Amino acid sequence: MRAIWKGAVAFGLVNVPVRLYAATGEHEVRLHQVHREDGGRIRYRKVCSLDGEQVEWADIAKGYETEDGELVVLTDEDFDQLPLSTEREIEVLEFVPAEQVDPILLQKTYYLEPDRTAAKPYALLRGALEQTDRVAVVKVAIRQRESMAVLRVRDKVIVLQTLLWPDEVREADFPVLDDDVSVRPQELTMASSLVESLAADFDPSQYEDAYVTALEELIAAKVSSGDTRAPASPPEEEGASEGGAEVVDLLAALQRSVDKARAARGEDADEGSAGSGSGSDSGRSSRRTSSTGRGATGAAKDRGSTAASSTAKGAAKDAPAKKSAAKAAPATKAAAKKAPAKKAADAEDAAPARRKARSKAS
After folding, report:
1. pTM exceeds 0.85, yes or no
2. End-to-end Cα separation, the chain, in angstroms
3. Most buried among 96, 118, 206, 240, using CB within 10 Å?
4. Helices of type H across 198-268
């Protein structure tokens, strides 16, 4: 166990250094809320109701709303200024008979462990409580909250049980209980007989939480049958997935912008989107054809001026195609990958023109 508080019990002039441990713990099976479809954890974020923004823990304060609707904001600094005289001390106020403490007041139970140097005063207090059959009423501050509590003995340990304040216990207001109800002696005798037939010494170990036991068996059966799934992505990966969604949205917005620009120029957006690569290849094809024509012209100069003239005419015919290619010159990176395949096709298309030019030259 881990101590949650450290201080001292003070009664009269006796001071007993102790450590406080939680004496109870729930045995519930911890279940998470998950998305039925994919098993993702359901998260709860602290969001401001005014601006809708998520608020960090460091920026959260506590507030009190008055009856006329005004808000009072209390910060950690405000709470630090409040007096807690019992912050590190369990102050014994009085010793009372144990039966006078109404069980409805009892809250959480803690064990008190003494320091090694305080074994004797601890044993002295424990013996006094046992001998007088009384409990000690004390005040203690745990986790910045002051509570009433009682000290009593359980086996060899002094136990501290926190109590509700008197105004925290509600009154039972049931008018039906004020009605006159007559119970016949025979009925009362029969009821008492039933009580006696079920009378026993209390042994809580003979009882069990049937629901939790069945739930644990159900989970074990699902695990053994393989009815499980891989855990969802850890929280740190959620931001990455959200960022990916933003990238997709950005690409979609860019595509819409491109389509809008093409529509303004009178082009078909769908055709432009699908054929942007071919338009770029067309431009490169025209430039390569022109370059090939210039190579053929250089060769024709050796053979005669006729071939040069023919080549010039061919270049003039290609001029409109060059202007059209110039409009489609802005190319995408995707089109660049198609260039090698297109180059081979362009070379085949240009071959007849070169053969024709050589034939005329000869």
Report:
1. no
2. 106
3. 118
4. 210-224, 238-264
